[in-house]
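hey so i finally got around to running both of the ones u sent me last week. sorry it took forever, my laptop kept dying halfway thru and i had to restart like 3 times lol. anyway pasting them below in the order u listed, first the sequence line then the structure token line for each. didnt double check formatting much so if smth looks off just lmk and ill redo it

first one:
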Amino acid sequence: MSRPTGRVLTLLELLQSGGTRTIAELAGRLGVDGRTVRRYVDQLIDLDVPVEAVRGRYGGYRLARGHRLPPLMLNDDEALAVLLGLIAGRRTGLATASGTAGETAAAKIRRVLPERLARRLDAVQESLAFTRPPGEPVPPDTGTLLTLADAVRHRLPVSIRYTDRTGRRSDRTLHPYGIVNHSGRWYVTGADPGAGEDRTFRLDRITDARTLPGSFEAPAGPDPAQRVLSGLAATPYRHEVALRVHGTVEQIRARLPVGIATVRESASTEDPATECWRHVELRAERLDWLPAVLASLDRPFVIERPDELRDLVAALADRLASYARRSP
């Protein structure tokens, strides 16, 4: 850019990319001398952009934390990344309960874009489709999400009011380990001192989340995502299914992942990569989807319970055999 105003905006964009920029680096990027860089910095400061000088051998300029948000400079790739993130968040359940926030943010960015770029981004949005996630996304309350995230970061206990799947309400104390988004729903996992065990809670069922005095230490072990998946697999449902499957852990997990089933080793010394009979347990509200999953395993299996599942698998096998015998 040849105009001074354009170079000032370019300077702001360089500073917004993070870190400390030396005067020599800025001068080279802008095509000016060091004195001119200092003059451009003074112009940004006059506009209340919080630029601070860093002294020393590797000193220069950087953006400081201020009370006002400086003008945001985005190049084409960055603008596309932000808008796609906002769109994907709304479609996949990564938005919060204030559902209009993503739409208004996208509209503000769209309004200040050059028309050339705005038209191209509109074309991306119109041509983009998302597969439907399992179940309807249930966004959490913004205040609840922020309170829990702060408690996770600083290891603070929180008080929550929770409504379970039966509609029963209870007040609990939670030591939160992490927040996880899974299949369009938000979960928090942590220790429940009152129950004396780790628990997983849906954020959309939490109200009145407040931090409490004190702190806690998160234990070593599975990460929050693994804890949530394991907790969901152990959630009580209408049917309890017990199987024995001959194969490796990887082969079984390909169709029955951690969030669906638990796989128990037949012996503590077994190698997970060894094919052998392994106990598999899972819980489900319905059984009609399981026969096709078991068939896709392509591994020998034995149904220990329930008998209803055995009948469904036999019925599927009969249907497939009848289809195979049909003539073209």
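and the second one:
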Amino acid sequence: MDKLKSTIDSTDQQATETANLIASNETQIKSEQTPIVTDPEIINQVILNKLNTRIYPRGELIMPCVPSMLEHYMERLKVLFQTLGRPFSGDELIQLRELLARRLKEGYEASPHSNLVLRYEPAKAPQTGLACNLSTVVSSVAEQYKTWVDNRQPPLFGSHPDAKVMATVAQLKADPAKTPILDVGAGTGRNTLPLARLGYLVHAIELTPEFVQQIQATAEAEGLPVIVTQGNILDPMVRMRPAHYKMAVVAEVISHFRDADQLRLLMAKMCDVIRSGGLLLFNTFLAVDGYEPDAAVREMSQIAWSTIFTRAELASAMEDLPLELISDDPVFEYEKQHLPPEAWPPTGWFNNWATGRDLFPLAEQQPPMELRWILCKRL
């Protein structure tokens, strides 16, 4: 075996030397036959090509996890990498589409506030081209609101309580000290605290820890009759006394829901905790009659904190529940008409958000949805 290996190595060496000799002769022949390039146009193009090999793209692209936008994202990425001079091959495009589809679906299912982050930079030697990394960053509603606390000036949701809330409470005509009220998704206490200052016993449920702390601090400082529970109203571990509350308020909460099943769960849970004859006031984005939002619109509505439902879905969520519809009003018009001038608009973002223009940024036309106040009586 050792002899055979030695013979092969020797033969390979001779073959290599012969090949080198041939290559040397061919180079000499070519150099004699091939003209020297001096044309400025050709020279400039060659230099430009050389320059491009020394340009190293490095960057980051952040994309919301919207599964329905897969093809749109693919086109954006194709154009981007073509512009960078690093176009994808056919096989790479197939692999990218499969990876992107899977990551978009996983991220969206985890949270509508998830993002895909694509980072690209030059590959490390001896490899060439671009090295890409695709990761998913998942963010919860509570985490999103935490950034509001850190980066925005209060009041985050307005200086006054909702006009519809205060008008509805006035309809109760009961002793506030004997009239418990439930405030779901209480935020910073914009409705909870004014109601408690009127003497009502208020149970506030809030998901964001920073908001819970704010409500508790104010309630303790003023000696207000407020109980605060941190949690998600849809969590089965968040429990309340059955048939206890005279009124329940669910303001700017359903806009964070994921589907009609969650809407149904909320309706059923409210029916369990509201007394017979009590009131349920909530707001939700409803599509106009005749408009059926497609998958892309539904996904984007969740990303824009404006989850859209059709009236048929709302009716289905309330079906067979002991609820009687009392009123159905547009939030924007009602609040603008009934809030004091110094309280309008409640925030800089409220007008576009409540009218559906945050999701559908139309300048002249009306969006096919709007935020509505829905008032129901518990039978």
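quick thing i noticed on the 2nd:
The chain is about 45% helix and 20% strand.
anyway thats it, ttyl
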